[in-house]
Task: inverse folding
C-alpha cells in the first residue's frame, strides 16, 4: 500500500534582527557597569598615588642609609648633625636641628681653602664660607673635605679637579638637593643647599621634583620658611632617639591630609 506523503506545516513568521544592534535594556546595563568600574578606578587612584609616593621615598631612604654607612666606613664617624646649645657661653644642654644640616655637603664632599676660610663644593663649584655654614647649618666645617690648591675663586683648576676625585662622593641625583632660598632677591640670600625629599624649585632655577612640601596649608607650616616647597631630609646623629648606636634619618610627607613619617627605624 502506498502511503501519501504529508506536506510540512507552513512555517510561522520569521523575525529579523539587525546584526550588531543593542536593545535599550542592554545599553543601560553596559552603561551601569562602566559607571561602576569608573567609580572604582577613581576611588582607588588616590590610594595608588599615595603608595607610589611612599615607595619612592622608601627607596631613596634605603639609598641614603647605604651612603651614610659607607661614609662611616670611610671616616670612622657618622656625618655630623646641627648640634647646638642655646647658652651663649657654649656650654650646657644641647639640642639638634634635624632640618638644617650639612648632610648634603658631607655626602658630596668639598675642597677647603684654609686661607679664605671657605669651601668649594664638589658638585657645582660654589664657594661657601665657613661663617655661612655655621650661621645656617650649624657647622663651621665639612669632614668630607680636602685642602685645595691655594689661589683662585670658586672655579676649580685642572689640578683641583683631579684632587676632587679623591673625595667621598655619594651618587645623588640633581633633584635630591635644593637651595634653602626660593629667590636670590630674598633678604639674607645664601647659596646653601639641603638634601631634599622634594621641592618646587629654588633660586638656581632648578625645577621641582620629588615629594615637595604642600603650599598654603596652615596645618603644615613649611620646614624651611625661605623656600616653602622645600621638603628636607631630617637627620640626627647626636644621641638619636630611635637608633641610639647610629643615626636617625627620616622624611615627613603629607598623604591625604595627614603627616606620615618614613624613617630608618620604621621602613
Result:
Amino acid at each position: 500500500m502506498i502511503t501519501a506523503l504529508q506536506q510540512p506545516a507552513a512555517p510561522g513568521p520569521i523575525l529579523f534582527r539587525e546584526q550588531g544592534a543593542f536593545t535599550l535594556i542592554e545599553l543601560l546595563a553596559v552603561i551601569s557597569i562602566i559607571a561602576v568600574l569608573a567609580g572604582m578606578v577613581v576611588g582607588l587612584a588616590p590610594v595608588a598615588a599615595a603608595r607610589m609616593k611612599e615607595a619612592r621615598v622608601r627607596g631613596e631612604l634605603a639609598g641614603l642609609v647605604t651612603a651614610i654607612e659607607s661614609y662611616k666606613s670611610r671616616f670612622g664617624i657618622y656625618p655630623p648633625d646641627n648640634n647646638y646649645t642655646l647658652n651663649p657661653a657654649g656650654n650646657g644642654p644641647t639640642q639638634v636641628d634635624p632640618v638644617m644640616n650639612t648632610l648634603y655637603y658631607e655626602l658630596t664632599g668639598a675642597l677647603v681653602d684654609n686661607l679664605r676660610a671657605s669651601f668649594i663644593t664638589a658638585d657645582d663649584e660654589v664657594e661657601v664660607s665657613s661663617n655661612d655654614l655655621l650661621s645656617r647649618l650649624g657647622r663651621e666645617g665639612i669632614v668630607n673635605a680636602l685642602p685645595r690648591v691655594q689661589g683662585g675663586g670658586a672655579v676649580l683648576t685642572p689640578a683641583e679637579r683631579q684632587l676632587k676625585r679623591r673625595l667621598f662622593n655619594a651618587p645623588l641625583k640633581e633633584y635630591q638637593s635644593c637651595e634653602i632660598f626660593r629667590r636670590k632677591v630674598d633678604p639674607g640670600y645664601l647659596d646653601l643647599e639641603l638634601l631634599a625629599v622634594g621641592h618646587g624649585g629654588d633660586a638656581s632655577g632648578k625645577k621641582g621634583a620629588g615629594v615637595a612640601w604642600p603650599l598654603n596649608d596652615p596645618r603644615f607650616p613649611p620646614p624651611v620658611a625661605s623656600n616653602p616647597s622645600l621638603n628636607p631630609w631630617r637627620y640626627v646623629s647626636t644621641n638619636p632617639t630611635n637608633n641610639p648606636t647610629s643615626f636617625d634619618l627620616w622624611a615627613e610627607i603629607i598623604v591625604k591630609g595627614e603627616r606620615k613619617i618614613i624613617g630608618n627605624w620604621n621602613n
